[in-house]
Amino acid sequence: IQAEKGGYKHFMLKEIFEQPRAVRDTTLGRISLNTGTVFLSEMKISDEEFRDAPRIDIAACGTSWHAALAGKYMIERLARIPVEVDYASEFRYRDPIIDSRSIGMLITQSGETADTLAAQREMLAKGLKTIAICNVVGAMVAREAHGTIYTHAGPEIGVASTKAFSSQLTALFLFALYLAQTRNTITGDESIALVEALTRLPGKIEEVLRTADLACEKLARVYSTARDFLYLGRGIHYPIALEGALKLKEISYIHAEGYPAGEMKHGPNALIDGTLPVVVLATKDGANHGSRLRYEKTLSNIQEVTARSGKVIAIATEGDEQIGDLVDQVIYIPQAPELLLPLLDVVPLQLLAYHIAVRRGCDVDQPRNLAKSVTVE
Ligand code: G6P
């Protein structure tokens, strides 16, 4: 077992460090750098069907559901098609209103989660074609799907999902770009720029791993005894805040919540006191107007927390000289286009949860009461 961990203390840490490769492997053979074209040859859904689809309906559970929420931002932004995201366990019982020309999507690392398979059956029964994003080749979900985008992240052993999540985000980004190209909602130059940015991402994740590991270990020394944590983000970073909170809950048993930063004033502000650590995703894509606006709004949310003496840990972009003075600790990540930033900001959140759990003496790879795949309802 020690050998399988490749020198790492836990599978989870090994898998966090495997993310550059996982992301690269997900893109392998699916992109052309010269033309910016995305190839998803595994689709048994025609271009016409993609053009006519009024909506994409996604169902998933746990971490895969967070990937789905981030995917909604990617698909809506690039392909201008509405996306609805459901918990698989809710989808199957809420008698959803479905247009049979819509495309169904299931996101599942294992491909065997009972609720997700049931949601797929529900979609098929309502006449939808379904696409699976799945990590395990030949899994149940793939057998029923009209196309599977395998994530190729390699086996994930740690119960808390890390590299599978990054590769799901990558697959969703590829799918969003593919759809945008099919539906003509993106120019050739934009495609080339985004594909190029995607290929640079593994190197940037490596950079985050190099710097954030030690930084998060230090943070863990300060915050491992906290009783609660808040994670805040706006836009596509909101699902990442949810994922950061889930990682901490799963492996350290500390209560944590993810919130859209703008919602603080409608409740969570009441929780803030001098003992509450608040992790804020405050990155920005300087070239993107929406992203800069989101950043400005996030800064005011940070001030709302510090004014109530909450402790702020910010994840910010390299070169941001403003934020250091406003918060207690900052972890910097490299620059990237807005839709790809989640693949960088999630890494310090995974490492923070990991180091806190280790300090608390928790069983990181096999947290109590949880299973890697939940094949019963
Ligand atoms: C379990 C695992 C989670 C995972 C979820 C969905 O709860 O502990 O890590 O996100 O199932 O699993 P799936 O295989 O469908 O992605």
From TrEMBL:
Active site: K372
Record's subcellular location: Cytoplasm
UniProt subunit comment: Homodimer.
A Gene Ontology BP annotation from the UniProt entry: amino sugar biosynthetic process
UniProt protein name: Glutamine--fructose-6-phosphate aminotransferase [isomerizing]
Top-level taxonomic group: Bacteria
GO cellular component: cytosol
Claim: Transferase is one of the keywords in the record: yes
SIS domain mapped to chain residues: 46-185, 219-367
